[in-house]
Amino acid sequence: MTIVKSAVDTSSGEYADAAKAMVDKIAEVDEAHATALAGGGPSKVERHRKRGKLTARERIELLVDEDSPFLELCPLAAWGSDFQVGASVVTGIGVVEGVECMIVANDPTVRGGTSNPWTLRKSLRANEIAEKNRLPVISLVESGGADLPTQKEVFIPGGALFRDLTRLSAQGIPTIALVFGNSTAGGAYIPGMSDHTVMVKERSKVFLGGPPLVKMATGEDADDESLGGADMHATTSGLADHFAVDEPDALRLGRSIVKRLNWRKKGPAPRAEVREPRHSPEELLGVVPADLKVPFNPREVIARVVDDSDFDEFKPRYGSSLVTGWAELHGYPVGILANARGVLFSEESQKATQFIQLANRAETPLLFLHNTTGYMVGAEYEQGGIIKHGAMMINAVSNSKVPHISLLMGSSYGAGHYGMCGRAYDPRFLFSWPSAKSAVMGPAQLAGVISIVGRAAAEAKGQPFDEAGDAAMREAVENQIEAESLPMFLSGRLYDDGVIDPRDTRTVLGMCLSAIHNAPIEGAENFGVFRM
Ligand code: COA
C-alpha cells in the first residue's frame, strides 16, 4: 500500500490564487448550467405546467429511485450556438429500480422539444454511451420532431436515432419509450423501435401524419385520437403496451417495466468496503494554477480522488512527465495516466504504451488525467524518434479494449490530446474541469505560426511585410483560439460529456465506473504493429 503524501499548502498565496481562479470559472459554468435548467424560459415552462404537464427534469426526478443521483450528460450542448443551451433534450444516467439506465428526455418547453443539429448529436452520444456500457435506454418522449429550419442537418443523419434503438435491442439492451405528448412523423419510430412502450391517456400523439397531413395526402378527415391516441394504440393498433391514466402513472409503469427486466451487470462487482481519500477533495479547488503554464503535480489530484489515497506508481523514475500507476476508485480497480510537466517525450510515450498493455492484460479500466501541451518537438527529439514513440502510444490507446475515462484538468493540446485518449479515441466518458483548454496548440503559438508562415510568403514574393497588420492578426487569432479552447465552447460542441466542479470528480468518476461495469471488462488481444 502506497499512500500519496500531499504538499498542498492551503494557507499559501498560490493556493488562494488558484482557488479563486477556479471558483470564478465554476461560477461561469454554473451560470451556463442555469440557462440549460431554465429550459424554454419562465413563460414556456408556465404554459407547459398550465397544460397539466411535468417538465423534462420533473419527469426524470419521478422516474429515478428516490434520493438517487442523476449524472446529467452534455448539459451545455449548443452553448455558443443559436440554439438554447442544453439543446432541447436532457440526457443522463439515473438509477431506476436499482438499474442504471440512460434517460433521454425531450424538453417540450424549448421550441416544442424539436431536434436541432445539437439535439441530434447529444441524443446520438447518449445512445453510444448506452451501447458501449450496456445501459437500458428510457426515452421520455414529447417532441415536435425535426427543427424544420435546420432540417437539412438533422433529417438524413437523424435516421441513426431509430437505427440505434433497434441495434441496442438486438444486443439485448432494453429500450423503453414513455410517450407524454407529440411523437409524430419520424418521431413515431421512437416508440415504434422500442422494446416497451407506455402511452398517456389523451396526451400521447403517435402518428406518421397528423390530421392536416392526412387530409392533404388522402382527403380523409381524422382527429388526433383516432390517428394516434393512447387509447387507440392500446386497444387497436397494439403499439402501446401499457396505457397510463396520467404522467405519474406512466412513470410508475416505466419503473415497473425496469423492475421486470431481470437486469444483471456483466462486469465484476466493486470491493464491498471502500475507504475515502485521506486528503480532502475540497482542496482540488486550488491544485490547478490559474496560469496553466505553471506545472502542477497530478499526484495531488490522484490523492484526492482514489480510495484511501492509495496509488502504486509504475516506473516512477522513468519518463517522469507522465505519472502512471494503479489504484481503486469507489472499489473499482483503475490504471491512471496523468501528465505531470506538460510535454510528452519518447520515454513517456513508451512508458504509456507498456502501461496500457499491462492494463489490458489485467482487464483494468484506464483513467487519463490531461494536462499536456503535446509531444516534444525539435531536432534532438525528432532524431530520437518522437514520432514513432508517440505513434506507439496512440496505437496502444486506439487498440486498447478496456474502458477508458478521460478528464481534462488543464491543457490538452495537439497530438497529446490524442495520445491521452481525446474525444476521437472513444473514451467511455470524457469530462472537463473549468480550468481545461484544448486546441491544436496554444493560442500564442498558433498565431505565431501563422505569422511566421505569412512573413516567409511575403519574403518569397519579394513583398514588404505588413508589421501592423501582422500584429492585429496575431491578436485577433489569439483571442479567437483562446475562446475556442475553453471548456464551455468545447462542451457546447459535444466534445466532452460535461464540465464538472473538480470537487465532484470522485463522485462523477465513481458513477461512470459503476455504469461501465454493466458491460463486461475485457482487455485487447491485439494491438497495431508497434514501430520500434
Ligand atoms: N421546427 C422548428 N420550430 C418549431 C417546430 C419545428 N418543427 N415546432 C415548433 N416550433 C417552435 C414554434 O415556432 C414555437 O416557437 P416560438 O417559441 O419562437 O414561438 C415553439 O417551437 C413552440 O411551439 P408551439 O406550437 O407554440 O408549442 P406547442 O407546445 O403548442 O406545440 C408542437 C408544440 C411541436 C406540437 C407544435 O409546435 C407542432 O406541431 N409543430 C410542428 C411539428 C412538425 O410538423 N414537425 C415536423 C416533424 S418531422
Automatic annotation (TrEMBL):
One of its GO terms (molecular function) is transferase activity. Residues 22-273 form the CoA carboxyltransferase N-terminal domain. The keyword Repeat does not apply. InterPro entries: AcCoA_carboxyl_beta (IPR034733), ClpP/crotonase-like_dom_sf (IPR029045), COA_CT_C (IPR011763), COA_CT_N (IPR011762), MCCB/AccD1-like (IPR045190). Gene3D superfamilies: 2-enoyl-CoA Hydratase, Chain A, domain 1. Keywords: Transferase. It holds the Pfam family Carboxyl_trans. Residues 28-280, 273-523 form the CoA carboxyltransferase C-terminal domain. SUPFAM superfamilies: ClpP/crotonase (SSF52096). PROSITE patterns: COA_CT_CTER (PS50989), COA_CT_NTER (PS50980). PANTHER family: ACETYL, PROPIONYL, PYRUVATE, AND GLUTACONYL CARBOXYLASE-RELATED (PTHR22855), METHYLCROTONOYL-COA CARBOXYLASE (PTHR22855:SF46). This is Acetyl-CoA carboxylase, carboxyltransferase component.
